[in-house]
Amino acid sequence: TTTLNATGSININGGSALLGTFVDNGGTLNFTSGTFGHNGNVTIGVGGPVGSIINTSTKSLIFGGTITVDPGSSLNVNGGILSAGSIQNLGALTFTSGILELTSDDLEVDFGGLLSRTPSVFVGQDIKVTNSVNVSGVGLLTMNGGSITAGTLNNSGIVQMNSLSALIDGGTFMNAGTLRGTGLINASLNNTASGVVDVNTWDNLIFNGTGNTNNGLIQNQGGTLQFNGDLTNNAGGTLTARGSLRLIGGLTNDGNLAFSTGITDVFGSITNSVTGQVSVAGGSTSSFFGTFANSGDVFVGFDSRAIFFGDVSGPGSFSGTGVVEFTGGFSPGASPAIVSFGGDVSLSGSANLLIELGGLNAGSEFDQLDIAGDLVLNGSLDVLLINAFTPGNGDSFDILNWGSLAGGFSAINLPTPGGGLNWDTSNLLIDGTLSVVSSALVGDLDGDGFVGINDLNIVLGNWNQNVPPANPLADPSGDGFVGIDDLNAVLGNWNAGTPPGAASGQGNSSVPEPGTFGLVVLGGLLLSARSRRVGTAS
Known about the structure:
The chain is mostly beta strands. The model is unreliable at about 505-510, about 515-520 and about 525-538 (pLDDT under 50).
């Protein structure tokens, strides 16, 4: 306890005098600069220890109790620190620079509030409130710069941010009114059902807090909206964007995420839940640069385009008649699933389609893409066996359905089926089917996986020749003689297998039947063979 008696004096000319309990018995306090304070109350007025007119340009006043500004007295915070549990302003309180701090009372932005119903905060002004700043339904808080730090900022009116030097810091920003403009929010955003976050052209609103949630409306109408922490758009929430949406901390979408008109770039990972709806409409183009896990629906409307540069996964659908383009990896389902597309699908040259096979039933055991519109294929196809599944001879998997098809895969990577089996991709670009066949393809004399003109030429080139028994090059019948049985083996399996390059779209998807000259030669060979048989019989 410090007691200032009637005959005593305290001189503070620089330095700091922070006291516990202070008893003023009428002595003299000479306070010209530095810091003075104690745990109790103080009166700014005639007879008060600090006088009736206080400027804090060279002073800091720090009190644990209540500062009362008497009628006719003035307290001008124009530098330094003014800190109190509460402030009762019956005179003139002005705040132009420095730090204004409340450690017990809330700061009310309303009629009769400490700083009025419509305070403006500028660079060089910092407001600190241990508990809450409350902006009423008729309140307008304008942040031209400076900062407000509070345990909670409750907004039922309007908070207008006008500069990236404007900062709202603290615990939670509870928004039931309107937050708009350009600035920094370091608190966790809780946008309630009545709350609106509004970013217009040229605005740049950045949220640095974590655990952000939206139950109302967040709209970016041509500016930049950035969340560096995680954001959850709840089932009742709507997030709309045109321009730049930066979800650096990731978005979980349980509600509505909508893009309309113009171009929108979306950065960061998105998890679209079962209840989530993502819409790209109005002739717009939306580019997604992060990973995208889709368990809900992505609607791409007529004349609109959704481009996915990151990896896409999940069992969710892609409705609408617009274009969905994949430039990264696409893995349908979290486990096997049928993923439907209402419009067109394009896989770019850098795209990779991963198909999982775990059984013979589409959707429940293997992946399938069901595309109502056009399918444009590029990139690679990877097929993966899961759940210890081993395909058998004759098994087939309808992995692709389309309205029309263009292009082909640049590479197809298939697992080894084992058991003397091979994959047959000959129908992949015909009806979207992969099949399992025996690895022994009768008539494939050149070993290219296809029975065609090259194999016929091998037989004709070795016609009537004796070869070592079971010579795979020219004697598929295995009798040591190249003749009619070997010719029948080739012709009887004509066009079987996959034409070289056809499955990837780089070769001819069909091989012609033997030409006229080849048929004439065949006819002569058949007659020769018949004559030999007749001669032998006679």
